[in-house]
User: Fold this.
Amino acid sequence: MSISLSQDTFEAIPSPCFVLEEEKLRRNLERLDSVQKNAQISIILALKGFAMWSSFPLIKSFLKSATASSMNEAKLCAEKFSALAHTYAVGYRDEEFDELMKLSSHVTFNSLNQFYKFQDRVPPRISMGLRVNPEWSDVVADLYNPSQTHSRLGLISSRLPETLPPNIEGLHFHVLCESSAAALVQVLENFEKKFKKYLPNIKWLNMGGGHLITKDGYDVELLVNTLKYFKKKYQVEIILEPGGAIAWQTGFLKTTIIDIVENQGSPTAIIDASFTCHMPDCLEMPYRPEIMEGSHHAEKYPFRYNIGGISCLAGDFLAGYSFSKPLKIGNTLTFQDMMHYTMVKTTTFNGIDHPSIGVIGADDRFELLKTFTYQDYRDKLS
Ligand SMILES: Cc1ncc(COP(=O)(O)O)c(C=O)c1O
Assistant:
């Protein structure tokens, strides 16, 4: 994978910096839009995965709305996406609920407790739904598997009454993560077995996120056919709310090597960014990002290095990257596919600055959108 940029453009980018490549985002959106049109469904942006709001005008030209999982996301949706949110949170806070409703077009409850508590405070223009759990997922890492045993995410079928409360208009499930269309087919088989009896009485079905529609090789035809079949069979409006798929492979994190340390014969290149602060999925999932200047396969090139983050966390490093020549202090390391679940999850642990944020537009020009300072760190604390 390489970044198709002129050397001058690339050198103008400060370090560290998250950089969105707008044309790549547009290509993803075009593909998602073709699914919307061919299957006659709606796709909305999951803000929890990608919330770089300077790109919202572009996203909005393809996707009508976004899903919010908190008051802040709902506010961002209203202010920067100019849309009412499809709101779903694991739990709603009493003091926020009424304001949250002003910012929402749909609200989904994670439990019957929450539904009974809040239903009378939902204005009639808002469509109410329940999150259900089909108890099947292809996700192997428990950290990302909403269908694990004792999951708190959504009602399992045995917890639902024989008929849904009359004011419930929709059902929602989310059990996939970077999954294929074939995985969705299997989810739907399980979903149908458990929840079929409710389908004649609902208007919409939100099939959550985790559909990696924009990955090369994703079977878009299978997805479209599956959605069309399901929509026709049950006469429901279908909504998908991917986050990752929207920003999949649309940008990078440029970093610089500021030191190289070597203990017990294994050199570590220390970068001016941090995995735990800026790329947490690399440690949590764990996920090994590709790197432009070398390889994430230890065997590919002769010079092997660990790459170390700048924080004090002992585990803030990734082992076993390889390079065609020895690394030097001052070299650039560019981590690929760094747009989704990065900026939305960053921390300033150790007081480490957030990387700058920039964009490369269709004209191949780099625009620096935001830099962070001591004040940003200080003002998060008191
Ligand atoms: C309820 C819900 N919807 C949508 C998403 C977006 O998923 P993804 O970014 O994998 O497409 C998530 C991710 O955690 C989620 O929890």
